[in-house]
Design a protein that fits this description.
- 43% of the residues lie in helices and 20% in strands.
- It is an alpha/beta fold.
- It folds into two domains: 77 residues, no CATH class; 216 residues, P-loop containing nucleotide triphosphate hydrolases (Rossmann fold, 3-Layer(aba) Sandwich).
- The strands form five sheets. The protein has a five-stranded parallel sheet with strand order 10-11-9-12-15, with helices on both faces. A three-stranded antiparallel sheet has the order 1-2-3, with no helix packed on it.
- Its main location: plastid.
Length: 302
């Protein structure tokens, strides 16, 4: 059998132990047995064009087969899939969460769950909970937990989020919400906080517009619509006025520190006032390192 150490894989073939480099290394079976060995290798491995070496991915463990019919040494692969990413991203209104969520989900294929979108969909449906939520949002107040917590919980428990991992956008926003969320055992791997000066936030919000046809968000100054036709149909969200955004900012600042106290060990603070590319570079670096750690953990557990 094979064992994994901090320095690599110990592979035992035909009674001999041999140490191989860590994941992402190349393993070459003995030339005399390469024909038999290659048949037992997982299709996830790839052969080099120049020889019979096999490239290993980081989440694979080498094992020696016990049931091989041939006396020649042979190898099989047991793949341990890493746990999916569970990420939270927070920040004041117009801090750039939507833009970063788009970039993150595009690269890491996570399920984007926006608490604000869930609430707005509930409001648009005209349900009783939607009517109650709108009353609180118009006052710049947080929507009660009994409405939001269950809504978010049910979305994260759906199969796509459980299998691919999730990116929770704009939630939790208070200590009570974070505490209630932890009771459902939803613990993030990383809590990303985008920090932007308040005067810039107000400017971003007031100039923000929604295309009701495509759902895309534009900004009259920073990201104007591509044509007059699109510009003519743009709408402003009811809570994107200067008065309401200042109320929302006040609520955000009052609650964000309490939320950070819950996730302080996994918090990444990012300067959201720089370009979206620079913001994403910081986030991307953190997520890449996180995935590497999960891959190693998955290999050790295999």
């Amino acid at each position: 059998m094979a064992a994994i150490t901090s320095s690599g894989v110990i592979l035992k073939v035909a009674g001999n132990s041999q140490q191989y480099p860590p994941p992402f290394a190349t393993v070459c079976p003995p030339s005399s047995a390469s024909a038999n060995s290659s048949k037992l290798f997982s299709s996830q491995l790839s052969f080099s064009s120049s020889n019979s070496c096999l490239s290993l991915r980081s989440n694979q463990t080498l094992l020696s087969p016990r049931l091989a019919k041939s006396s020649s040494p042979a190898l099989i692969v047991a793949s341990a899939k890493p746990e999916p990413l569970k990420i939270m991203i927070s920040g004041a209104p117009a801090s750039g969460k939507g833009t970063q969520c788009e970039l993150i989900t595009k690269k890491y294929d996570l399920v984007h769950v926006a608490a604000g979108d869930l609430l707005r969909a509930e409001i648009a449906s005209g349900s009783e909970n939607g009517k109650r939520a709108k009353e609180y949002m118009e006052k710049g107040q947080l929507v009660p937990n009994e409405i939001v917590v269950v809504m978010v919980k049910e979305r994260l428990l759906q199969p796509d989020a459980q299998e691919n991992g999730w990116l929770l956008d704009g939630y939790p926003r208070s200590l009570l919400q974070a505490t209630a969320f932890m009771e459902f055992d939803f613990q993030p791997d990383l809590f990303i906080l985008l920090e932007v000066p308040e005067e810039l936030l107000v400017e971003r919000v007031v100039g923000r517009r929604l295309d009701p046809v495509t759902g895309r968000i534009y900004h009259l100054r920073y990201s104007p619509p591509e044509s007059e036709e699109i510009a003519a149909r743009l709408t402003q969200r009811f809570d994107d006025t200067e008065e309401k955004v200042k109320l929302r900012l006040r609520t955000h600042h009052q609650n964000v520190e309490a939320v950070l106290s819950i996730y302080k060990d996994v918090t990444l603070k990012v300067d959201g006032s720089v370009s979206k590319e620079e913001v994403f570079a910081q986030i991307d670096s953190a997520l890449t390192k996180l995935l590497d750690r999960k891959a190693i953990s998955g290999s050790l557990a295999a």
